Amino acid sequence: MNTRTYQRCTSCVMDTTDPDITFNEQGVCNHCQRYDLLVRDVVDRATRGERTQELDAMVARIKEAGKGKDYDCIMGLSGGVDSSYVAYTAKRLGLRPLAVHFDSGWNSELAVNNIENIVKRLGIDLYTHVVNWDEMRDLQLAFFKASVANCDIPTDHAFPAILLRQAARHGIKYVLSGSNYATEFILPSSWGYQSGDLRHLKDIQRQFGQGRLRDYPTIGFFKQYIWYPYIRGIKTVKPLNYLPYNKFDAKQTIMNELGWRDYGGKHYESIFTRFFQGYYLPTKFGYDKRLAHLSSLIKSGQLSREAALEELQQPTYDPALQEDDKKFVAKKLGVTVAELEEIFARPNKDYTDYASYAKLFDIGLRVKRAITKL
To answer: For the Asparagine synthetase domain, which residue ranges apply (predicted)?
Structure first.
């Protein structure tokens, strides 16, 4: 339990609901300091249009690697802002992407419509992987029963497994990622363990699940971080870091050009993620991910701190819809609302309470950083 005296950063809106947050003498948090040290120059240069030559060079490499193939790149498409704008940008740059969608069983109707409009208007091919629902349901319920913060791991783990398999199948050498510094650099590690750890996922399934994962797409450390990138030569690039990427301008563009419709909060294109981020995390752990999302926008100059604080005065999303979502989630997971609430009331756990490859991932990250500096 976090017993610290409450404090909010004087530069962004992060606060002591992040148990690992620290502040300097001016009251500026460690997240802001990391942003200023590591990525501010990159974001500012991109915003001023000073990374276009780097972007052009990257696009040329992608096109060269894709000569004679059906596609020169591959990308995930969730129907959200970032992936939709990446698809729009890819076509604008003359690339030939294969879009991949993971149907986890939780798509909102709006997300489905967005995806259909995007692929139709851009004329790109779409591969959709529909999950084995019995396994997905069992795994998601297992994560709730484990009482950990990141219960979105079942979705976030499967997606790169599917994406990289399809890249290898089609001989594609480049993955276009919608991940970017301007709108999502800040996210406390204390708010949830990363999704790539297969050992962690399997241990929770073993302890709390009812069956084995036979069809659910998994990917281990070796395949994700060694086999695919270094042996198969599949590289992940982040084009939004080379562009003047403004979330609000991007929304307007995809609305006008692709018939995209807004679905609310970040990642709320999934009903499960909406409920997980907007209800489960705030009520069980006291974590409001809007703090991180809004803080990234503040740091990149897209939102004032005052506007962010005003937004935080509002509920994460409509309370009536939260109750509807709770009933829907319970029914879809095969439990009653009372049973789901009993599960949520169990003592909170940390990812360290379960098996993981955390040390291996830490070593891998250090090696990657060392190589990057060479």
So the answer is: 77-178
pLDDT digits (tens, 9 = 90+) for 229-285: 999 999 999 999 999 999 999 999 999 999 999 876 555 678 999 999 999 999 999
Q: Dihedrals φ, ψ of 19, to 5°? A: -65, -20
Rounded Cα distance between 373 and 364, Å, is 14
Q: Which residues does 325 contact at the CB level (< 8 Å), separation at least 6?
A: 271, 274, 275, 279
Instruction: Give pTM, 2 decimals.
Output: 0.94
The pLDDT tens digits of the residues spanning 107-166 come to 888 889 999 999 999 999 999 999 999 999 999 999 999 999 999 999 999 999 999 999
Residue whose C-alpha is closest to residue 12's, from 290, 278, 268: 290
Q: If you classify domain 49-285+335-373 with CATH, what class do you get? A: alpha beta
Distance from the first to the final alpha carbon of the chain: 41
Contacts of 220 (CB under 8 A, 6+ apart): 198
Cα distances (Å, whole numbers) of residue 127 to 44, 97, 131, 314:
35, 11, 13, 38
Residue found under tokens 């404090």: 7
Q: Measure Cα distances from 315 to 265, 278, 290, 293, 354 in Å.
A: 11, 8, 10, 15, 32
Contact call for residues 284 and 290 (beta carbons, < 8 A) = no
